[in-house]
Design brief:
elongated, about 725 residues, eight-stranded mixed beta sheet, about 50% helix, binds manganese (II) ion, binds (2R)-2,3-dihydroxypropyl phosphate
């Protein structure tokens, strides 16, 4: 062939054999070039294929997003993850929502639009993640729908200081999105014809189902680790920790929509029935108690999970709470109640706080603090005391500020200061829900002594909290020997709490605060749940085999005492009452009439005090009867009785109606946020924006400085010297 059709014609004569060789060489080169071209085409096709393999794309983008979320969990958020189960839940929680959202990509038939959808999902999710990262750096909290809609907090957090809030590692939040965008642009510009086979719809649906399945596994694991996670919403960070940021955003959106729609239909007309009830229910103060603590500092001590049975109880011949007993039994300076009940629902501590601060009930489900507290209008103790009597206010608590949404709610209650976990030594031992009470109380001094007096202060203890974790170093008290560890250790942590208080009081006495204060001490709710009561029965000298609902109800007694140094008319009070009654009682002791405020309880000392104690589920206790789920028990005998036969049916019926009415009117007031339509004369509406719980010590020092000689803080009165050395060493 080459002879007939030579590839080239040499100018000079070349020997035929060489000629053939040359021809062969050229031929081979051409073939090889062709080969190379073909290889290149194959390579290009592979790249194209890879870029157009939908499964690979989905997996890569999802994995990268998962990694970014984990980065945020560990580096930017502090979620308080404890133990391997929580760690596992944390690691899997971004999977479900990421698959669900990114999986939409599989449903879009055409390749390019599908890619755009995926990119937008990635961008949106990254935006949500990053917004939260920035917001968290400023507020130690997550972005809520409300804060986005209201724009107030987000704009405060994001604008202005936003650059200052950025960190070098933030590049990792955006790197994959930028690369994705680059690839998109490249593909669109250079490979106009790029396409890929659409995924069968069944596969797309399968991915969504897988996402749903993953979510339900995630939710069940979470519920097992933290029962009633969604009903009670302890803390926004809990939802993020257990279910992830996207689930939190959706959950928050649904809740916001629910409250908004209730509120949109509310009007001041709704107040008519409420005012009618509270006005007619009002109980005027007993003149002999009115104003007996006027002008004194108020020190509220919240005894975590502390029940009345602990008072005067002995284990192996030793008093569990000798210090609290000495206060309770001081029949001159203390007014203590032995028929006082907690009335909390699922909001536990937060419900107790709500009742004591606002005089309204908690909600029938969940916590009022977390559900409505962020933007409800309140007329609460710190605001009333400040406006009517010039009180400064502060809360001290060894747990993070976001728990029970306190960091938001306290502002609406009018608290000027909130010293949360961040104000205490970070090295302090964290046991369960916060640092140990002894450490917390000791460290409060550095903050307390800078508050202007008179002050209204609340100390939220936390060490006596289920599961009553103990060690032998801090908790040297004999445990009960019932065999149920929750019950057994309860007395040990209660004893610890008692010791913490004794030390705190030693300091207060030495610094002179004690003599000029009224102490309001209460147990917030049960520590031993109904399911454990039978194990406790024997230790209380009761028969576990006859233990019933009636006994469970009686166990809901918690301590309440007003300890007023210098007062001489104290003694144990036997009238029945509950947490809802505390605010009007306290106000009257302080010489402030509660009449113009909407409050659902009555002054415990008033001759007109309503002794019916309403539980959140509608059950109630009176001095004579205990009504549980429509069944009546006689208090004297503990026996179930036939109300009709005893001719008390109509009396019980009337009480039951009133209990239900009070609970539902209180719910209406709070759910519809009706206090925004009612401002009693002389009361100024609280503006939460005025409060900021950062740098509180600096602010209080500035107030001291500005007031100069007029400053009434302990520190100023002590010749500008700290009183911290007066605190006894922690034993
Ligand atoms: C946590 C503490 C406990 O900050 O107040 O709340 P509780 O679990 O008792 O409702
Ligand atoms: Mn509690």
């Amino acid at each position: 062939i080459l002879k007939e059709k030579p590839l080239f014609k040499p100018k000079n004569k070349i020997e035929p054999s060489i000629q053939i060789n040359m021809h062969f060489f050229i031929f081979c080169s051409i073939v090889e070039t062709d080969n190379l071209i073909e290889k290149e085409v194959i390579r290009m096709n592979r790249v194209k294929k890879a870029f157009s393999n939908r499964w690979l794309i989905l997996l890569t983008v999802s994995l990268l997003f998962w990694a970014k979320t984990i980065l945020a969990y560990y580096v930017d958020f502090s979620l308080g993850v404890e133990g391997s189960i929580q760690t596992f839940i944390l690691w899997i929680n971004p999977i479900a929502t990421t698959l669900l959202l990114f999986g939409v990509f599989l449903y879009v038939k055409k390749f390019k639009p599908a890619l755009i959808v995926l990119f937008l999902m990635d961008l949106l999710n990254t935006l949500i993640l990053y917004l939260n990262v920035i917001f968290y750096r400023e507020f130690t909290d997550f972005v809520t729908i409300k804060s986005i809609l209201g724009f107030s907090k987000v704009s405060q957090g994001i604008s202005g200081s936003s650059f200052a809030l950025m960190k070098v590692h933030d590049i990792f939040y955006w790197l994959d999105v930028i690369i994705f965008l680059g690839i998109l642009i490249y593909l669109f510009a250079k490979h106009k014809e790029i396409a890929s086979k659409p995924i069968k719809k069944t596969f797309a649906v399968a991915v969504s189902c897988l996402a749903a399945l993953t979510f339900s596994i995630n939710l069940s694991l979470s519920e097992a680790n933290r029962p009633q996670l969604l009903q009670r919403t302890f803390d926004r960070s809990y939802i993020v920790k257990y279910l992830g940021l996207d689930a939190f955003t959706v959950y928050d959106g649904i809740k916001t929509e629910q409250t908004n729609s209730v509120r949109a239909h509310a009007s001041s007309n709704g107040l008519t029935d409420i005012l009618k009830y509270t006005k007619s229910h009002y109980a005027a103060p007993d003149p002999s108690k009115y104003g007996i603590a006027k002008g004194k500092n108020i020190i509220v001590i919240h005894l975590e999970s502390f029940q009345q049975f602990l008072i005067n109880m002995k284990v192996d011949g030793q008093e569990v709470t000798p210090f609290l007993n000495s206060l309770e039994n001081d029949n001159k300076q203390t007014l203590a109640f032995d028929n006082f009940f907690h009335e909390v629902g699922q909001g536990k501590t937060s419900d107790a706080e709500n009742m004591l601060e606002t005089g309204t009930f908690g909600l029938s489900q969940g916590s009022l603090f977390t559900q409505l507290g962020s933007d409800n209008t309140f007329q609460a103790a710190p605001a009333i005391l400040n406006q009517e009597a010039g009180y400064t206010s502060a809360v001290f608590h060894g747990n993070v500020g976001s728990f029970w949404n306190r960091d938001h709610v306290y502002k609406n209650l009018g608290y000027q200061n909130f010293f949360d976990r961040s104000y205490f030594n970070q090295a302090d031992e964290n046991l369960g829900y916060g640092i140990l009470d002894k450490d917390m109380l000791k460290e409060t001094v550095g903050h307390l002594e800078h508050l202007q007096q008179p002050f209204y202060t609340k100390f939220l203890t936390v060490t006596n909290h289920t599961p009553y974790l103990t060690d032998d170093k801090n908790f040297n008290f004999p445990a009960l020997k019932t065999g149920n560890s929750t019950v057994d250790d309860y007395v040990r942590t209660a004893h610890y709490l008692d010791e913490s208080l004794r030390q705190f009081f030693d300091y207060l006495k030495a610094s002179g605060v004690y003599q000029n204060s009224i102490f309001m001490i209460y147990g917030d709710h049960f520590g031993i749940s109904d399911s454990n009561n039978k194990d406790l029965a024997k230790a209380l000298g009761k028969d576990p085999t006859t233990w019933d609902k009636f006994d469970d109800a009686q166990m809901q007694r918690v301590p309440l005492m007003f300890h007023i140094p210098g007062y001489t008319n104290g003694g144990i009070q036997h009238q029945y009452g509950g947490e809802i009654d505390v605010l009007p009682t306290l106000l009257h002791l302080m010489g402030i009439d509660s009449q113009k405020y909407i409050q659902f309880g009555t002054d415990l000392f008033s001759p007109k005090h309503d002794q019916t104690v309403a539980f959140r589920n509608g059950d109630f206790i009176t001095p004579n009867y205990t009504e549980l789920g429509g069944e009546t028990y006689e208090n004297k005998t503990g026996e179930k009785v036939d109300a009709k036969a005893l001719d008390i049916a109509s009396e019980i019926d009337k009480e039951q109606k009133q209990v239900k009415q009070a609970l539902s009117l209180s719910d209406k007031l709070n759910q519809e946020n009706l206090l925004r339509f009612y401002t009693p004369e002389g009361f100024t509406l609280i503006d939460p924006q005025k409060y900021d719980y950062h740098d509180l010590d600096k602010k209080n020092a500035a107030i001291e400085k500005e007031k100069g000689n007029q400053s009434t803080s302990l520190y100023s009165k002590n010749g500008n010297k700290t009183t911290a050395a007066l605190y006894p060493p922690i034993q």
